C-alpha cells in the first residue's frame, strides 16, 4: 500500500509543539472503521474543531495558506504514543506527504515509511529555523528531495537528512515489501525447521 | 559478552541487510479488532494467506462495552462491525479467538500472559503500542502498525532495525504504599516521554528482581510512554513459576529443556549498553501526573509546577498549555485536586494483584459523594479469580462499579469515557489531551492511589489512609 515518494515542493505547515501524540493526531473514536480511507476528517479533531463541531479559526491547519499544505514541520517526539496507523492515514488523507521533526515516535516513523508519508529527522535547531521562517511568512514552500536526501527551506538553505537505504528504495519505487520478503521464503522455512528441532516448545499451536 | 536483548534478537534473525536491518522471525502475534481489519483485507486483496495461523491469538478488547448486557447488544454499530469483522477474519484464517462470551476474553496484554502464550526468549508483536508489556517475561515484544500486522500475518517475519540498548537499574527497596506503577512513572519523569526513543530497555536491579510478574508487566507496559521500542526483564524463578502449568506454556515433555534454555537469557557480566540509567526505589514516593504527558509526574506530596520557573520558552509554553487543558494553577497542592471519576483498570493495572491492593485500600470504606468509581478487571479470568477472593464484594460494598473486562475508559473508544471537563484518577497509561474522551482530564497513578482518591474524592497520599 506504499505510495511512491520522490521529490515534493509544497506549502509547509508549522506546528510548533513537542510530543504530539497519535491520540491528538486522530482520537480513538475515529478508529472504528475497517477501511483506510476518509480519515482526514478526524485529523487533529480536538484542535481543529470546537465542541459544537465548528472550525477553530486560529488553529494552524484551518488557516488559508495551510489548507493546501503537504508538509508538516513539528516539534520533537512527533507521533508518540499509540501505534494506530490511522494517524498516518489521516495525515495523508488531508494531503500531507512529509513530516519534518527533530524526532519521531518509533512506531509512527515506521508507519510513515510503509505508507509513503516521508518522516524527515532534522536537528532541533534546524527545525526551529524552518518553523520561524514559516511563521514569519505563512504559505511559504519547502522542497523535499528524497533521492538527494535534502530538505531546502524557504530561504534556499539546504539540510541533509538520514534515511535507511532499504526504506528509501521502497519509497522511491513504491515497492511491495511483502513481495520482497516472500523472496526469502526458503530462509524463513529453514529457520522454522531448525527452530523446531532445537526448541520445539516455541512452535506449539495455540 | 552480549546483553539479553542482543541474545534474543540474534536468535531471531532470518537474514540481515546492511545498516542493521534484520528480518526477524515472529513467534507470537496477537490481534485485536481495531488495528487488524485493514491488514486482513489487504491480504485478501493480494490473495495471500495467514502463514502460521496457530501462532496467533485474536481477542476483542478496545471496543467491547464493559456492561453486563454486552452479549445482548452493542449499541454502536461501528464497534459491533469491528468486533464481527475480527470474528470473521479469525474464523476464515483459522485463528484461535477468545470471543466476548469466553472467560479468557480480556485486554490482549492481560490475556496473552495469563494463558501462557508469552515465553522467555520469544518475539511477540501486536498492533498495539502497549505490546511492550509482554517483555516482562524476557521477550522482545513491541507494537506495530497495521501494515506491519499484514506483513507479519503473511510472512511470520518483520524487517526491524537493531535497537540501541539501555539498561535501567532499580536499586533499593520500595516503601509502603509505593508500587511498580510509581517506579515506572518516576523513570519516565526522569528520562522523558522521548527519552527511550530508538532504545530497547532492560530493567534490572534488586528491586526489579523482587517484583512479581504482575509488577514487571506494569513496568514494561509503560516503556512506550518513555518512547522505548521495547522493554524487558530477564527471566528468573519468578517467571518460571508463573508460567508453570499455564495452558499454552510448555508442558511436561518440554518443560525441563525450556527452563534450561531460559536460564541462559541474562545479560552477561561485562556486557555494555549504549546507555545506563539508575534509580533508587527507596527514594520514590507515590506518583501522580499533573499534565498531559506521562513525563509530567510528581510525588503526591508535591505542588503543580510554575512554568515561570522554566528557562526554556518552548518547555514553558508546553507546560502552560497543559495547565490550561488540565485547569490547574501553579502552586496548587496535588492533594487539593478533587476528582469526578476513578478508573481502576487497563493493560497497565488490571491484573489480580492490582485489584487486591486496591481492594485493601477500599475495604470497609465508601466512595466519596459525587464520585463515580469503576473497577474493570483485565480479563474474565482475573474477574473470576477476584470474585473467588471476594474482591468484588469489597468494591461493591464500598460503592465501586464492578464491570466486565475490556480496555474501558483508558482510550475513550467504547461507552466508558469521560465527559468534557471531567477529572479522573486513573490507573491507565496515558494522560494525553482527550485520551479518555474529548475534554477529559486524566491523572495517572497506581491502583492503591486511585482507590484512595475514590474514598476521599481528591488526590490522596495513600500512605495516609493505609
Give a brief description.
Chain A has 206 residues and is α/β, with parallel strands linked by helices. Chain A has eight helices and seven strands.
Keywords:
heterodimer; A: alpha/beta; 7 strands; globular; B: 466 residues; alpha/beta; Aconitase, domain 3; 2 domains; 5-stranded parallel sheet; 31% helix
Number of helices of chain A: 8
Greatest contact between two chains: A-B, 60 and 83 residues
Binned, the helix content of chain A reads 25-40%
Uncertain runs of chain A are none
Task: Write a structural description.
The complex is a heterodimer of chains A (206) and B (466). Chain A has 206 residues and is of the alpha/beta class. Chain A folds into two domains: 168 residues, Aconitase, domain 4, CATH 3.20.19.10; 31 residues, no CATH class. Chain A has eight helices and seven strands; from the N terminus they run βααβαβαβαβββααα. In chain A, strands 4-3-2-1-5-6-7 form a seven-stranded mixed sheet, with helices on both faces. In chain A, β2, α3 and β3 form a beta-alpha-beta unit. Chain A is globular and about 65 Å long. The mean pLDDT of chain A is 96. Chain B is an alpha/beta fold. Chain B has two domains: 272 residues, Aconitase, domain 3; 178 residues, Aconitase, domain 3 (2-Layer Sandwich). Helices cover 31% and strands 17% of the residues of chain B. Chain B has 15 helices and 19 strands. In chain B, the strands form five sheets. Chain B has a five-stranded parallel sheet with strand order 5-4-3-6-7. In chain B, β15, α12 and β16 form a beta-alpha-beta unit. In chain B, α12 crosses α14 and α12 runs parallel beside α15. Chain B is globular. Chain B starts with a helix and ends in a 10-residue tail after the last helix. Classes of the chains: A alpha/beta (206), B alpha/beta (466). Chains A and B meet through α4, α7 and α8 of A and β1, β2, α2, α3 and α5 of B.
